[in-house]
Design brief:
Elements: H1 2-7, H2 10-13, H3 20-31, H4 36-63, H5 74-93, H6 99-108, H7 117-121, H8 126-145, E1 152-158, H9 164-182, H10 186-197, E2 203-206, E3 228-237, E4 240-249, H11 254-267, H12 272-276, H13 281-290, H14 299-307, H15 310-313, H16 317-325
Parallel strand pairs: 1-3
Antiparallel strand pairs: 1-2, 3-4
Helix pairs in contact: 3-4, 4-5, 4-6, 9-10, 9-11, 9-16, 10-14, 13-14
Length: about 325
């Protein structure tokens, strides 16, 4: 053992985790410009990195350790940590991980694959790549929209109707046209819109007061090429409600919102079962919820409760058609 130590160089002795003299030899070698000092310093850094990993593993193990065990004493832990330090140093010197080699190539500016430090500090020219990506995206949008970029507005929710009665009477004609295309009761669509907007008391408006006319809470995904309204919304994650910001579609009128809802449901394969059962509002909304239209676990029941509630029982179809014809559909 003693003979092996004699044949080692002073820098190699610095790999002993508990040899303070060896570390001092490393410091002096670095000051004198010894080319081997960088290699040894890199290995020391890798050893520190490995030691930190071992320390984290030991902490996790200590949580489950038996407190009454003789192998869990402070003395045992002290010598165990010393052993871990030496293991880390030996692993680094053998090149098992390779971190030291990377450090030497980077700081020594030698060898293939060398990347200047200024490139690393400037994110490897990623900013210019990101700018090119943004420009390309904008050009693609301009080609689709005729040089009209998609606008996203910060928004809030305010009332767009005086009460539930005005909500029903004004929206019924548009609901009737949309319902014919789905084969569903118009009042069922109004019931869903009532749940989504609180009977029109929580309609999305942008900061300039423009109404989004979004009656069904349809979000603006990548397929939507119109304007968007960014607003807080409540989503359920594993049954727990949480407030998040999300972009929603903006329309030019309530009639447009109704028509887009029909297209959205009929053209999306995930809602195919719901559309097939549209003659029964209860089955329709149940299948709609199963397909993931809303995250609220009680979504379908809420709509049916409104659909069968007192607000709609007051009206016959004739009354709704008469009152709705005089209503403002925008």
């Amino acid at each position: 053992m003693e003979q092996s130590l004699i044949t080692q160089s002073p820098l190699e002795l610095s790999r002993n985790a508990n040899d303070i003299k060896g570390l001092d030899e490393l410091r002096r070698a670095a000051q004198s410009g010894d080319s081997k000092a960088l290699d040894e310093a890199a290995k020391q850094f890798e050893a520190i990195f490995v030691q930190m990993m071992l320390k984290s593993m030991r902490k996790a193990q200590d949580v489950m350790a038996d407190k009454d065990s003789p192998f869990n004493s402070e003395q045992v832990k002290f010598y165990r940590d010393m052993h871990d330090k030496q293991i880390a140093s030996d692993l680094a010197s053998s090149g098992s991980i390779g971190l030291a080699d990377i450090i030497v190539r980077q700081l020594g500016k030698t060898g293939d694959g060398y990347m200047p430090a200024d490139a690393l500090r400037n994110d490897g020219n990623l900013s210019s790549i990101n700018r090119n990506t943004i420009v390309s995206t904008q050009k693609a949008q301009e080609e689709v929209l005729g040089n009209q970029p998609i606008k996203t507005f910060q928004s809030f929710k305010i009332a767009a109707f005086d009460d539930a009665q005005s909500f029903i009477e004004q929206l019924y004609p548009a609901a009737q046209q949309a319902a014919q295309q789905l084969g569903i009761d118009p009042k069922a669509l109004l019931a869903q819109a009532a749940i989504e907007t609180g009977w029109g008391q929580h309609m999305i408006h942008n900061t300039s007061g423009q109404n989004s006319y979004n009656l069904f809470g349809i979000k603006a995904d990548r397929r939507w090429q119109g304007d968007r309204a960014m607003v807080d919304t409540i989503e359920f994650e594993q049954g727990v409600a949480a407030t998040k910001k999300a972009p929603f579609r903006m329309y030019d009128s309530f009639a447009d919102s109704m028509q887009d809802y029909v297209s959205f449901v009929k053209q999306n394969p995930r809602y195919e079962n719901a559309v097939k059962q549209s003659q029964s509002p209860e089955h329709y909304f149940s299948e709609l919820q199963k397909a993931g239209y809303a995250t609220d676990p009680d979504y379908a029941n809420k709509i049916i409760s409104v659909f069968e509630g007192e607000q709609f029982k007051r009206y016959s179809a004739e009354q709704l058609n008469t009152s709705g014809a005089a209503g403002n559909m925008k």
